[in-house]
Design brief:
The chain is built from twelve helices and 20 strands. By secondary structure, it is an alpha/beta fold. The protein folds into two domains: about 300 residues, TIM Barrel (Alpha-Beta Barrel); about 90 residues, no CATH class. An eight-stranded parallel sheet has the order 3-13-12-10-9-8-7-4. Strands 17-18-16-20-19 form a five-stranded antiparallel sheet. β5 and β6 form a beta hairpin. α1 runs parallel beside α2.
Length: about 450
């Protein structure tokens, strides 16, 4: 294993090891402070982070307003205070070593206001901001205003070139690095474009070489690339280290930090990670963001998969193609004759709520599941800038489209699982490499290492 050389990240010389920032509450200030204390980069999530009272007890989210836009304002204010609280904890725990970064999602609700306020109120506590989930074209301007380094998360050289031309070229002094997140290997939301096949992964090497070539053309020779997605042990990535075609590189670990003593996730979640097999993580299109996402195939996800499998095209009017009447609750729709048995089988199984999607199809649900969806929509807090599940739009109040019953309330389920909720009946994001916990000797017999032990193993190439 090659010796890792320190790199300059956010103005500090640190080991080229970065903790990925995962929300909601999958990464917090304490864990990121420990990573920084080991002279690495610790990253806490800025997506609905926990606030603390004077005794350092968690203040759980509460919403009082009836209007969605007003509830989003409540959410944003709680996020701002949560970020400040997490930054303070991280800074204190780090003992001034390493770097503290905050991770944001560009398409989250209120991101611009949250960034503005947090960087103002936590000045000097946060060294850098990473941001993905969309094209964060205002990131450079906002971070530079507070003399904070910024790190766009992209999945192709083309995406970075767009950001550079549109904005970043005017704010290059505080461009700390470029995070290349492999769209086929990363957990959570993936940056796959419509031109890329989710089932045909491309090697990160060629895409990194292309990214570095574009960055060199922009005069960014000394700006590090941070490789994220699918990083387990560095011995598998030796060809990327000290490689002139890639240049300065750091490695971001998203999955492995979750299974440490300092990780904030629940014991049930940690136990699940220890027992996963290859194939237990799948990519799917159910996220209300519209992005493809990668998650563990549990009871929650299986219900969505079954609902999708039962989907049937329909028409309000009878025609040659849609000739078979489907009558339910005094209403009649028309479906294709070849779908009649499929539809009736679901109704007979108790899926009697027949609900239209925005794509002129219908899905079949239980009364309980439909009632839960109605409740979740009524309680929408505007966690996204635009939501396919609730039809919320930050810009207009509504997207103008019908709510999609094939989706779910992402804020509710991620907040639940991030605070001790059932890991089988909530969404659990994970990357492709998560099955390796069950195979890696470090975790034998259920061993959970400390962050320090994990970093020592990583430095040895393990």
């Amino acid at each position: 294993m090659k010796n890792l050389k320190p790199v300059i990240i956010s103005g500090k010389e640190v080991l080229p090891l970065v903790e990925g920032g995962k929300g909601i509450n999958a990464t917090d200030g304490y864990c990121s402070g420990i990573w920084a204390r080991e002279n690495c980069v610790g990253t806490f999530s800025g997506v609905c982070p926990d606030q603390y009272d004077n005794n350092k007890n968690i203040i759980f989210e509460k919403f009082f307003k009836k209007n969605r836009a007003e509830r989003q304002e409540e959410l944003v204010e709680q996020c701002i205070q949560g970020c400040v609280d997490q930054a303070k904890v991280a800074h204190e725990v780090s003992n001034g070593k390493g770097c503290i970064h905050m991770n944001m999602l560009w398409e989250a609700g209120g991101t611009e206001k949250i960034l503005q306020e947090v960087l103002s109120r936590a000045k000097g506590l946060i060294n850098g901001v990473t941001c993905g989930a969309g094209l964060p074209y205002k990131l450079g301007e906002m971070a530079s205003k507070f003399e904070t380094y910024y790190y766009p998360i992209i999945s192709s050289a083309r995406a970075f070139q767009i950001l550079w031309k549109r904005s970043f070229s005017n704010f290059k002094d505080f461009l700390g690095g470029v995070v290349y997140e492999d769209p086929w290997l990363a957990g959570g939301h993936n940056g796959l474009s419509n031109a890329e096949d989710p089932n045909k992964p491309e090697t990160p090497y060629s895409r990194l070489v292309e990214l570095r070539a574009r960055m060199n053309e922009m005069g960014l020779h000394n700006i590090p690339i941070i490789l994220a997605g699918g990083i387990w042990n560095l011995s598998e990535w030796e060809d990327y280290i000290d490689n002139p075609d890639i240049g300065q590189i750091a490695f971001q670990f998203g999955t492995r930090p979750m299974l440490t003593k300092e990780s904030p996730i629940s014991d049930a979640w940690k136990n699940m990670l220890l027992n996963l097999k290859k194939g237990d993580v799948i990519r799917q299109h159910f996220s209300p963001t519209g992005f493809i996402s990668s998650a563990i195939k549990n009871t929650f996800l299986e219900k969505l998969l079954n609902r999708k499998d039962g989907e049937v095209a329909f028409s309000d009017e009878q025609s040659t193609e849609f000739s078979h009447p489907l009558t339910f609750k005094n209403k009649t729709l028309y479906i294709k004759p070849q779908d009649a048995e499929k539809a009736q089988r679901q109704i007979d199984a108790g899926l009697t709520e027949v609900r239209a999607t925005p794509d002129n199809t219908i899905v079949f649900m239980t009364h309980e599941d439909w009632a839960e969806q109605q409740k979740d929509r009524a309680e929408c807090v505007g966690c996204l800038s635009q939501c396919q599940f609730s039809s919320w739009s930050q810009a207009k109040g509504t997207s103008g489209k019908s709510p999609d019953p094939r989706s779910y309330c992402i804020h509710k389920t991620l907040y639940k699982v991030g605070h001790g909720g059932d890991v089988n009946n909530n969404l659990v994001f994970a990357g492709e490499q998560v099955y390796r916990f069950a195979q890696d000797p470090l975790y034998k017999n259920g061993n959970i290492p400390s962050v320090k032990e994990l970093i020592q193993n990583i430095l040895q190439g393990k």
